[in-house]
Amino acid sequence: MEIQLWWTGKTQLKFISMGLEEYLQRLSHLCKFKVHEFKGTRGLQDPALIRKREEEEISSRLLSGDYLILLDEKGTMRSSTELAMHLDKLQQQTHGRIIFLIGGAYGFTDEFRSKARELISFSSFTLSHQLIRLFLAEQLYRAFTIIKKIPYHND
């Protein structure tokens, strides 16, 4: 079983790149994972067309056994401990890849959302699709320290 983090476009802000590097390095000691950065849609202006192209590219990479989790404002919020327990359960029950997908600036269509096994949200705030990458990496690291009983998380 492998965790994959997918997102659209390069991480442009240096402080986010530095934070991602730190947490992904830490995470590499705790689980098998990969990051896939989709190239994005340069030059397009129409949000509907941008979403369509991004979703087509992402869909072409999905396999039938994948467990797709979208980070989406319409998703369910979980505490760090709840996320850890859920991830632990998924690792035991899922044979394919567990993919956490962060959409681009315009999010996902309802049609694409229906492809996901679940939607999760980190906040009722609208968050930058770049910043949420760092939040996800930290929360996955936190979840695996909880699962493996490594001191990091404080209740």
What's the alpha carbon Rg, rounded to whole Å? 15 Å
The first-level CATH class is given as Alpha Beta
Number of strands: 5
Strand order in the sheet with the most strands: 2-1-4-3-5
Helix content: 40-55%
Q: Tell me, rounded to a whole number, the average pLDDT.
A: 94
**What's the helix count?**
5
Order of helices and strands: EHEHEHEHEH
| Binned strand content | 15-25%
- Class of secondary structure makeup: alpha/beta
Reported for the largest beta sheet, the result is:
5 strands, parallel
CATH evolutionary superfamily: SPOUT methyltransferase, trefoil knot domain
Number of domains: 1
CATH topology: Alpha/beta knot
> Looking at the structure, what is the overall shape?
globular
Low-confidence stretches: none
Task: Report, as a whole number of angstroms, the end-to-end distance.
Answer: 28 Å
The CATH architecture term is 3-Layer(aba) Sandwich
Written account of the structure:
By secondary structure, the chain is of the alpha/beta class. Helix content is 41%, strand content 21%. The chain has a five-stranded parallel beta sheet, with helices on one face. Strand 3, helix 3 and strand 4 form a beta-alpha-beta unit. The longest helix is centred in the C-terminal third of the chain and has 17 residues. 23% of the residues are buried.
